[in-house]
Write a structure and sequence with these properties.
Helix content: 55-70%
Strand content: 5-15%
Distance between the termini: 72 Å
Shape: globular
Structural class: alpha+beta
Number of helices: 16
Radius of gyration: 26 Å
Order of helices and strands: HEEEEEEHHHHHHHEEHEHEHHHHHH
Number of strands: 10
Number of domains: 4
Strand order of the largest sheet: 7-8-9-10
């Protein structure tokens, strides 16, 4: 009850309950729960039979009664706890499966957790109940944008904007309304931020199509919707794949690559495209549920990175106890220093190499499937490899030390 009281403390006004006999009751909050109206007053919870209620005049601007778990869900989401927000949204929908506010809270929580397909389904259900509900249309647009369906997202944003315009929706529209010149295939939509360069776009499309086929065979899945590729023709090309701030801001399923100064695919550009497409595959399947060590380790492996290329330095770190724990490598590397980020990327590639040595690509497929089912990274490792996080860490570090000893013996024999 404490969390509920905290939520209600910030709520202005009171709901007014008008009974059939004409009496009026003031409530801190009221909500329907099956055949009764429940209301909270001065910290006490009361029930009124539905047939004893004439009407309820809600205090909130939404003009409807809001389940307290919907309010708690919003509060948790604003406080940065989407998992708890999801739990409260589900509780609200358990009481009222057709609650529009509950469906909106569910979709918003799912989006925050990277579950774009589930968020789309929740928002579509809400729009099906009320096609003119602005918040549901916006959430449907958000989920479609996260899935790479730019046209679908624009359609929903425009419908929401027509109902009520605001600066947030305008910014979302402006972000998606890029120049119309683009190159497309069944798998990709290539757009330009800056002047169009269709010869380069067609060449990039060919590279990505071939890489898609390789990844689809390797992973056993592919993104359900076309992947948007934005070529930043006004930004000079550089290697974005080791830039923590870039990864944190841009690896959301859409591929963004600066290409100014390039008129044909170079080995560096091809490597970046392979790296970023790996992120798009993982984002489509797992969303934000994939830990950064897996995202970056798999992407480096698929770009052509050889896992042993940095193991010598990591072996020394393992000997000295300087290897980061796997939980420390789950969040994006945006707050790391350059040296810390370089080491974190190397460790990510190394642990993925260790997983490949244990059970090959099949083990990675099972790990990704477990994450897609909503398991935590630690639980997913247990499901796919039969190892706890601590056991995986010990085995990985032992492999690094063993490789270091082997290298020392080989060096001594020369």
């Amino acid at each position: 009850m404490t969390a509920l009281v905290l939520v209600l403390a910030a709520r202005a006004g009171a709901d007014t309950i008008i009974l059939q006999d004409g009496r009026a009751l003031e409530a801190d909050q009221a909500w329907w729960e099956g055949v009764v109206l429940r209301y909270l007053k001065d910290g006490q919870l009361y029930d009124v039979p539905r047939d004893a209620v004439d009407r309820v005049e809600p205090a909130g601007s939404e003009g409807t009664l809001i389940d307290p778990d919907v309010l708690s869900s919003r509060e948790c989401l604003a406080g940065g706890d989407p998992s708890e927000a999801l739990r409260h949204a589900r509780l609200a929908l358990f009481r009222d499966p057709d609650s529009l506010a509950g469906l909106d809270a569910l979709a918003a929580s799912q989006l925050a957790l990277g579950q774009a397909k589930r968020a789309r389904d929740s928002a579509q259900r809400a729009v099906g109940i009320d096609p003119g509900r602005r918040r549901s249309l916006e959430l449907l647009g958000d989920s479609l944008a996260a899935l790479g369906d730019t046209d679908g997202a624009l359609e929903r944003y425009r419908a929401a904007y027509d109902i009520e315009s605001d600066s947030r929706l305008r910014r979302k529209l402006e972000a998606l309304e890029l120049p119309t010149n683009h190159v497309s295939s069944a798998r990709f939509r290539i757009r330009y931020d800056g002047d169009s360069n269709e010869p380069l776009g067609l060449a990039v499309l060919g590279i990505l199509d071939r890489t898609w086929e390789e990844y689809e065979e390797l992973f056993g899945f592919s993104p359900g919707l076309p992947v948007t590729v934005i070529l930043l023709t006004d930004s000079v090309f550089y290697d974005t794949t080791r830039a923590p701030e870039w990864a944190a801001a841009w690896n959301d399923g859409t591929i963004r690559v600066p290409v100014r100064g390039i008129d044909r695919p170079t080995p560096e550009l091809i490597r970046v495209l392979c790296h970023e497409l790996a992120h798009s595959f993982l984002a489509a399947r797992v969303g934000s549920g994939a830990p950064t060590w897996l995202q970056e380790g798999v992407a480096q492996w698929l770009e052509g990175g050889h896992p042993g290329r940095r193991d010598a330095g990591l072996a020394a770190a393992a000997r000295e106890g300087r290897i980061r724990s796997l939980p420390d490598l789950e969040a994006p590397f945006a707050d790391f220093s350059e040296a810390e980020a370089t080491s974190a990327y190397a460790q990510s590639l190394s642990v993925v190499a260790h997983l490949l040595a244990l059970k090959g690509p099949g083990g990675l497929r099972r790990l990704i499937a477990a994450l897609a089912d909503g398991e935590t990274p630690e639980d997913a490792v247990q499901s796919a490899y039969g190892l706890s996080y601590a056991e995986l860490q010990r085995g990985w570090e032992a492999r690094l030390r063993a490789a270091d000893r082997a290298a020392s013996v080989a060096a001594g024999g020369r």
